[in-house]
Amino acid sequence: MNVLEIIGQLINITLVFSTALIFTALGGLFSERSGVINIGLEGLMVSGAFAAAVVTEYAIRGGLEQSAPWLGLIAAIVYGILFSLLHAVSTITFRADQTVVGVVINILALGLSIYLTKSLFEGSGQTPTLEVVFHKWAIPYLSDIPLLGQAIFTAYPTTYIVIILVVISTYVLFRTPFGLRLRAVGEHPSSADTVGISVAKYRYIGVMLSGALAGLGGATITLTTTSSFAHNTISGQGFIALAALIFGKWNPLGVAGAAIFFGMAQALRNFAQLFDWAQQIPNEFFYMLPYLLTLIVLAGAVGRSSAPAALGEPYDSAKR
Fold first, then answer.
1. Which among 73, 176, 209, 284 could bridge 30 via Cys, Cβ 3.0 to 4.6 Å?
2. What is the mean pLDDT of residues 180-202?
3. Is the dihedral of CA 9, 163, 253, 206 positive or negative?
4. Element (H or E) spanning 154, and its range?
5. Residue from 36, 23, 9, 35 nearest 244 by CA
């Protein structure tokens, strides 16, 4: 294996691990730009991974093999939105503490998903291995380019989708009236309310978008790398996505770059173990690498990232 092949494979594996993080971090971006802290990204990823695995499995059993993974993605979006509504109702309507609600969402999502998995699959702690999942798409002609063809233009469809979503999110947030209003309710909700913008409406939309996108993040893992759902399918990746959101300074392009950085840490964990020299290093070191880098990056980012001014503050229009 020559140097170009090694670099190409490393970049490709990085994109595989980064895709779920970008989806989830973009979800957190819309929620927090509206002023609602979303610690529950981990739970929303779990719910998406669970829904995608279950619906895909039953679609395969029903003879819908060709469309099964896509139905799984749709199910993850719907289930993620439903779960995020628990967060929205609690924090926006009843003005509960946003951090506490997020922690509860994480615990509830995991517990409920494991319970439903055991109920649906005869007591098994995980779903059956999916016979049909997403495979990498090679873009004609572009995939033949040396290095870049293997690294970028041969990827899972979810990777192409998330790249498009990063571009769309950047445009929507900074070039449309919707984006301006969403950012306004996260910065100065009383001022937005004064000019007739419904703070509750836009915060609900932001939180629901976070559920849809984080659900897609969880589904991506199920439908590309693990091919099943279990209690450890989402192992802290929602928190890494939250770190990417902070490190990326609540900007879609910055968030994507930070997620790719953390994705590379996960890729190095898997990629390094292919080499003989890595056999001398305990596996635990490679497994802790992404989380160790997350702590280091967050420690350096504290004080340098400026969150939306009203982030975490419940808004009561009656006290305006």
1. 209
2. 95
3. negative
4. strand 154-155
5. 23
Read off φ and ψ for residue 138, nearest 5 degrees. -100, 120
How many other C-beta atoms can be found within 10 angstroms of the C-beta atom of residue 2? 7
d(CA 187, CA 169): 18
- Dihedrals phi, psi of 137, to nearest 5 degrees: -100, 130
What's the CA gap between 223 and 218, in Å, rounded?
9
As given in the structure block, the two tokens for residue 4 are 């170009």
Exposure b/e, 278-290, CB count within 10 A at least 16 = b: eeeeeeeebeeeb
The tokens for 266 are 């996960």
Q: What is the pLDDT of residues 172-181, one digit of tens each?
A: 999 999 999 9
Specify the amino acid at residue 128.
Answer: P
Mean pLDDT across the stretch 61-80?
95
pTM of the predicted protein model: 0.93
Cα dihedral angle (68, 73, 75, 76), rounded to 10 degrees?
A: 140
